[in-house]
Amino acid sequence: MFDKIALILTIIGGVNWGLIGFFQFDLVAFICGGSASVVSRVVYALVGLAALWCISLLFRDEDPVRAETAH
Fold first, then answer.
1. Residue 71 has what pLDDT?
2. CA-wise closest residue to 7 among 40, 38, 30, 68
3. What's the DSSP call for residue 3?
4. Which domain range does residue 43 map to?
C-alpha cells in the first residue's frame, strides 16, 4: 500500500516538474494557493518523502507489483 501511495505522489511530482519545465506552470502552487503556502509545502514535502521511499524499490529483491498480482 505504501508503495502505491509513494508511486502516485512521485508521479504527481514528476508531472508538476514537467509542467514547470515546459510551461513555467506550477500546478501544485496553483491548486494550493501559491508555492509558499502551508498546503503547498506539505504537498512538496510528501512528494519528497515519497521519492525517498521509491528509492527503496530499486533495492528490493521481489517485484512488489508481480507479488501483489500473484496472490
1. 60
2. 68
3. H
4. 2-70
| Residue 60: burial class (beta carbons within 10 Å; 0-12, 13-18, 19+) | exposed
How far is residue 25's CA from residue 21's CA, in Å, rounded to a whole number? 8
Amino acid, res. 35? S
Query: CA 42, CA 4: separation in Å to the nearest integer?
Result: 19
Summarised one tens digit per residue, pLDDT across range 26-43 is 999 999 999 999 999 999
Name residues of the chain where pLDDT drops below 70: 63-71
Q: Which residue has the cell 509513494?
A: 6
Number of domains in the chain: 1
Under DSSP, the state recorded for 34 is: S
Grid cell listed for 71: 496472490
